[in-house]
Amino acid sequence: MSALEQSESTAASNGAPPAGGERIAVENPATGQVIGHVDDMGPDQIGAMVDRARRAQPGWEALGFDGRAQVMLALRHWFVQNRDRVVDLLVSENGKTREDALLAELFYICDALGFWAKQAPKYLADQRIKTHSMLLLGKKVVLRYRPYGVVGVIGPWNYPLTNSFGDCIPALMAGNSVVLKPSEVTPLTNLMLADAALECGAPRDVFQVATGAAGTGAALIDNVDMIHFTGSTKTGRKVAVEAAQRLIPCSLELGGKDPMIVLREADVDRAANMAVQWSMSNSGQVCIAVERVYVEEPVYDEFVEKVVARTRELRQGPPGEVGKVDIGAMTFPPQVDIVRDHVQDAVDKGAQVLVGGKPGAGPGQFFEPTVLTGVDHTMKIMTEETFGPTLPIMKVRDADEAVRLANDTRYGLNSSVFSKDVAHGEQVARRLHAGNACVNDALMNYLALEAPFGGSHESGLGARHGEAGIRKYCATQTLLVTRFAMKREPLMYPNSAFKAKAFEKLMVLMWGRKPRKKR
Ligand code: NAD
Predict the structure, then answer these.
(1) 253 an active-site residue?
(2) Ligand 1 contact via 155 beta carbon (within 6 Å)
(3) Which of 3, 9, 97, 114 could form a disulfide with 36 if both were Cys (CB 3.0 to 4.6 A apart)?
């Protein structure tokens, strides 16, 4: 079945009205060919979808963790069985290499399905709270988590599965219904999953996919009980305002400008390999890509030389057979203009382009793997998110200067430090103002699903992964249970001078002593 037929059949299975309004064309960025069309859903369609999701939710919650886990594990099996179909669609709508689709998307999703199926009951188990208050002696206090109801998930185009469906998994395991709005640039793979979920035993309407652009996303926020958003900081700000208007919780995974620091005692080979790998992977369209590098003077020349050599070896082109291409297409046409603008701005201000520097040959959209030196913080390429295959490298005097420059940003997503003196590397990493930091590594922290991954500053609010990554999809309820209930307790009416004095004396006894100064 073609992507076009797929999208139409899935829209029908979602119960959406037949296409009548605007249709959005989906292009293969590596060839420029249109590969499908999806509806640009309006507020009425979204309202109806969320109503259906709301009706389906109690039954889904009632299935319990085990019942929901069964569906997640069936989905994992479905992904493995349908891997070629999924990879084909991902590659054709996003332009990424088959390797990236397989490892950074399919492998991640399969891992995440099993992880949340297993961990959700643990992370969301009732928690007995031991309270310090002597006034609550003998009473039981319990914290419990319950699903919000209908969660909306809005995703970007760079990782259509990992950063869209990936965020639905914990929301579903928590017992919510989910309406996912993938990016209008790459909606097809997720659309296929609405049918897959049904096939794998999810009750109808528990997981639905809403296609459309900004207006569809806004309509989703208008209807759901909680919103998870992954995308640019600019849109994230709007999402936060909309969520605030409705007083619904939101979690935001936004943009970044991740620094890498190479200290003088670093393994320069490893640092250079990592820098090239994680600045160019997925054409640099990774929120946690290495976007700028600071190298201590003594190893600067060696580092630049190695980076240039490795970058020249990269093979770029339309993704085809496995093992033939290292870098695919740029997914979103305006992104090519942003990358070109950042490179031109740097060159105008005195930077040198050592490799690449311009868009690649068509008919698809490409930008050559690009290495720049002679850069500084007056340039966009060092301060704004480029989101392209660029690696600007700056020489620094020492670690202090590297840390100062790394922290000179409005973002705070990921970061990395390279040093063979691991203790020193860790010391430097701890000084970075970022939600995540790696020592002698980059990006791999994303795979530690047990650990929260989230941005600081303008890179986001909240986290995915870890207990925080599923508890955010739940409201809490604190239960206080009095088991041995007296007919009358000392705090009850009537007020009396005796009781008031007794409490006053107790207070003076407990907290009346002047605190001693610590020597
Ligand atoms: P974007 O902000 O343009 O769009 C993201 C999604 O928001 C799309 O589905 C879009 O249709 C929707 N949208 C647009 N306007 C909206 C509105 N007013 N209300 C509701 N929804 C709206 O981002 P993009 O260009 O698709 O993705 C690239 C960005 O995503 C980069 O900045 C990248 O760093 C970021 N990103 C972050 C992470 C992370 O985990 N922190 C992961 C992947 C991508």
Answers:
(1) yes
(2) yes
(3) 3
